[in-house]
Every structure is written in C-alpha cells, then in structure tokens.
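Re: [ENG-882] Designed sequences occasionally contain unexpected residues at chain ends

Forwarding the minimal case from QA. Structure tokens:
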C-alpha cells in the first residue's frame, strides 16, 4: 500500500516538476556598459524551448534559439557574443530601427512647409535614423512575466532635433515571447511636434543556424502583388510595380537563390503588402528552411515589408562563436512603411502629429 502510494506520489511529483521546468522563464543579466549606462541582457524562455535574448541597448535580439523538426535548437539570428561587437561595427544586427527605417533621400523632408535636414550616413542619404539611431542608444527597460508570455518594455525619449528629426518623440517598444512560439514586437510613439516615424526590427535570420552557410535555399513567400522599384542608391522611383512574371514574385514560395542573379545587387526592396482592410494584422511573409524544417511566419499591420538578402555581408565580420558572416548568410524581413515615404506623395503617409499615437505590431512566429 505504502509502496503504491510512494510510486503514485513519485509520478505526480515528477510530472509537476516537468511542468515547472517547462514554464515561461525570464532572467536578467548585466551585459556591459555604454554611455555611462548599464546594458542588460534579458533571457526569455517559453515552454517549447524557444529562447530569445534581448538587450536594452538598441533593443537588440542577440540570440534566438528555435528547435528544428527533431527538436534540436539552433540560434537563428546573426550577432555578436559581446556588447563590444555591437559597439564596434554592426550592420544593425538584431536591432530596433528608428526614427525612420530605411532611406530618406538627401536626408531632407518637408512637413507643413518647413524643411528638415537629417544626419547623412549612407552616401547622400539618411539610413535607419541617422548616425546614432535607435539601434545605438540605451533604452530604459522593465520586464514582465505571465504564465503564457514574458517580455520587456523598452522606452526611449528621442529629443527634439535628434539626428535632425523634429519633436520630442516618446517611444515604447514591447518585446513578448509567447508559448504560442511568437516573438511579438509592439511599437508605440507620441510627439509634441509634427514629425515622421517608421519603426522596424532588423534581425538577420538564418533558419539553418547563424553562420551555417547562406540563406539561398530558404523558401520565401511574400504576400504582395507589388513592390517598390528603387534607383542605384536604393531610393524609390515612386512607382509601385506588379511583381508578376519577375524575380520579385514571391506570391508563391520560391528559393531565395532561384532568381536572385536577375536582381542587381540582390534583394533589398520593399514589397507592398496585400491588404483588404488597412492596418489589419495579417500574414506578410512565410519562410521555410527545408533541411531543418524550421518555418517562420511574419505578421504585421504595416503597409510594407523590406526583404533584404544580406547583400552587403562580405565576410569581414566575425560574429558569435567565431562564425564568419559571408554574403547572403542572413536575411531580414523588416515590416515598415516604404522607403523615402516622407518625400513620396503617392505612398501611405508617415507623419505623426501631436495628439496622435503611432501604433504598430509585428509578430515573428516559429513552427
Ligand atoms: C537596407 C539595406 C541596408 C541594411 C543595413 C536594410 O534594411 O534595406 O539597404 O544595407 O539594412 O545593413
């Protein structure tokens, strides 16, 4: 009798322990210091073994561990092992990008008849918010944990005139990892002067695992019938062009490498996402890596998505675990408004005015 009771107790005890081990978890550790502020790395773990590590410096996702079809986890984002790596040289690995994701032609735009001049950091253009964008600042951070989700709330005050942008912009970004295998990013911003805002996330994914070869065999699908053609400096021509019968057509899945040679420089374009209802959260893209079986779906309520095939990676950067990042070793799917929208009257507007709240959501969901 006693033996049976002990066995029964032992079984329940083990089961409970297993469940306890599998619970959502959050850990905070010091990662370094910059600008006289402490930088923390937050480790979020869900019950399916997905691990996301995120910094309050630049909101950088430093690691993202996703199990493959056999349950073996790999870190699927490019990055560095130390803060110094990110401080020394980074093509926006894993970072939050703002105030304006992608390029603004000539670093100039006009609101209500007043012209603003931005810091130039990409030839004659402004890229990703300028010299010291949101990817290079230390954000204030608070963490939270619930039974089915955990995350961090990042806040930053971008002062009037920062990098040339008008208005004190209060920005809040919430990263949440859920037991539904989603990494959710919610962006919010308010201003005290009319300004322009376009926030995104810049992880370089490789679903085979970071540093494990190129991404050309990944199957890409983008739910967009049109894309935004650009000139040689990657500034939109203003046209929204049908993808039909071209290497830009990802309405059905295609290997990234299948037609990339037909695209000068590789993929670095914005796709005009199909939508029936404006601002509705819907699937924008789906990527499948055939060998590992890892699948990533991207959901957003933004009008566009920038698909960048890591064309400027050239083997000069050595990342995590000594892995060298060669050309096409990672791809980005950056949900956003189209590049140079402040200067393109035919594109959806990107002006934020006092009293309004900029609010967008993006989800990277893994299977
Ligand atoms: C842009 C690329 C740029 C890269 C920065 C992407 O969002 O589209 O043109 O080189 O970011 O590393």
């Amino acid at each position: 009798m006693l033996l049976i009771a002990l066995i029964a107790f032992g079984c329940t005890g083990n089961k409970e322990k297993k469940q306890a081990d599998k619970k959502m978890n959050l850990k905070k550790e010091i990662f370094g210091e910059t600008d006289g502020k402490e930088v923390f790395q937050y480790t979020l773990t869900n019950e399916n073994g997905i691990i996301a590590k995120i910094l309050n410096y630049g909101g950088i996702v430093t690691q993202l561990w996703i199990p493959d079809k056999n349950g073996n986890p790999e870190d699927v984002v490019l990055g560095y092992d130390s803060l110094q790596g990110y401080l020394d040289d980074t093509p926006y690995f894993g970072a939050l990008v703002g105030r304006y994701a992608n390029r603004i032609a000539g670093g100039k735009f006009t609101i209500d008849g007043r012209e603003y001049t931005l810091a130039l950091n990409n030839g004659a253009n402004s890229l990703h918010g300028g010299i010291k964008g949101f990817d290079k600042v230390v954000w204030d951070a608070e963490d939270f944990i619930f039974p089915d989700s955990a995350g961090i709330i990042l806040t930053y005050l971008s002062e009037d005139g920062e990098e040339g942008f008008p208005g004190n912009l209060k920005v809040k970004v919430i990263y949440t990892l859920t037991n539904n295998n989603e990494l959710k990013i919610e962006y919010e911003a308010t201003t005290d002067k009319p300004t322009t805002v376009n926030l995104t996330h810049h992880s370089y994914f490789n679903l085979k695992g970071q540093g494990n070869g190129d991404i050309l065999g990944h199957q890409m699908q983008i739910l967009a019938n049109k894309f935004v053609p650009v000139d040689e400096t990657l500034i939109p021509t203003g046209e929204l062009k049908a993808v039909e019968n071209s290497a830009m057509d990802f309405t059905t899945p295609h290997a990234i490498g299948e037609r990339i040679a037909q695209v000068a420089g590789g993929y670095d374009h914005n796709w005009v996402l199909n939508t029936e209802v404006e601002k509705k959260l819907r699937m924008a893209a789906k990527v499948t890596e055939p060998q590992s079986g890892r699948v990533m779906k991207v959901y957003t309520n933004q009008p566009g998505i920038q698909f960048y095939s890591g064309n400027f990676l050239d083997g000069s950067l050595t990342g995590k675990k000594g892995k060298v990042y060669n050309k096409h070793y990672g791809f980005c799917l950056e949900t956003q408004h189209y590049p140079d929208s402040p200067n393109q009257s035919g594109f959806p507007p990107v002006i934020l005015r006092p009293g309004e709240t900029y609010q967008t959501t993006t989800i990277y969901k893994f299977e």
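QA comment: On inspection the terminal residues look reasonable. Confidence is low (pLDDT under 50) at residues 1-20. Proposing we downgrade this to a documentation issue.
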